[in-house]
Amino acid sequence: MYRLGIDLGGTKIEAILLDENCNAIQRKRILTPQNNYHKILNAIHLLVSDFLANIECSSIGICTPGAISKKTGLIKNSNTQCLIGKPFKEDLEKKLNRKISMENDANCFAIAESMMGITKEFDIVFGVIMGTGVGGGIVINKKIIQGRTNIAGEWGHHTLHQNGNNCYCGKNGCVETYISGPALEKRWKDLTGKSQKIPEIIQNLETSQAKQWKTEFLQNFGFGLANVIDILDPDAIVLGGGLSNIDFLYTEGKDSVYEKVFSDLVDTPILKNKLGDSAGVFGAALL
Ligand SMILES: [Zn+2]
Questions:
Q1: Which one, 154, 180, 204, 261, has least CB within 10 Å?
Q2: Which bin fits 153, alpha (ψ -120 to 50), beta or left (φ > 0)?
Q3: Which tens digit of pLDDT belongs to each residue from 134-164?
């Protein structure tokens, strides 16, 4: 049977149809309608109708920015802000006239890498998204662990520095306010006076300010993930999102994590994803 996956992103909506062996047999991308909830619903409806015009599929999964509140059924913590507070899953099910599955992007990433990507061989996997925000998803024996209130894996809002940077979540010093792309670029600007993007910043890290920037980054990355290992002790950690392209996270970053873990033996593989930007849409199809 076929499975349909849809990845709703801030700029594009991607759909993929997988056959029973997880081969992609059809793919399509459209632009995300901006700031308009009903246009997003209609765009997904059209996309699904297009795919299902001639075939049947056993499941439809949607990868969304944000999580569904177990208390209200409404979307929360989403950077696509017109979704916040909306019964997105319920509205889509009404429109499509069938049941769907829905998960946030970190969970879709973690399941996709665990079923088809770099962490296929591992039982307990922690999937990390480091980009505009910092998120995480836990997969155990190929199953997403949502947790009692749908927040399992959200290491991005662990407190790293008690009186630290303000976070949109209402707390101070969250991991996300130090090692997300925007946070790192802001810190770079504070230290050097330059407005630069991460790929440009990491080209040259020789000045004393640049070294300070990198040391702080490695320390925060190390403490953040060491806390995760102390709780979950996963068989592997896989990095995704734009910052997963930073090579030193897999060498010096890994060392920084290892030296902070509470154990005499630390050898948790910290791996670069295999599916790249496609993890979200594959993960959605696998829900
Ligand atoms: Zn926070």
A1: 204
A2: left
A3: 999 999 999 999 999 888 999 999 999 999 9
Ligand 1 centroid to residue 85 C-alpha, Å: 18
Structure tokens at 196: 């630069």
User: Whose CA is closest to 244, among 179, 150, 147, 194?
Assistant: 179
User: Residue length, the chain?
Assistant: 287
Q: Which of 125, 167, 169 has the alpha carbon at shortest distance from 274?
A: 125
Please name the residues in contact with 233: beta carbons below 8 A apart, sequence gap of 6 or more: 124, 268
Ion ligand 1 — residues with CB under 5 Å?
Answer: 157, 167, 169, 171, 174
- Assess whether pLDDT exceeds 90 at residue 258: yes
Ligand 1 centroid–CA 231 distance in Å is: 19
166 C-alpha to center of ligand 1: Å? 8
d(CA 2, CA 4): 7
Quote the ligand 1 centre to 129 CA distance (angstroms).
15
The alpha carbon of 182 and the centre of ligand 1 are apart by a number of angstroms equal to 14
- Report how far ligand 1's centroid is from the alpha carbon of 168 (Å): 6
CB of 138 within 8 A of CB of 144? yes
Please tell me what DSSP assigns to residue 2. Answer: E
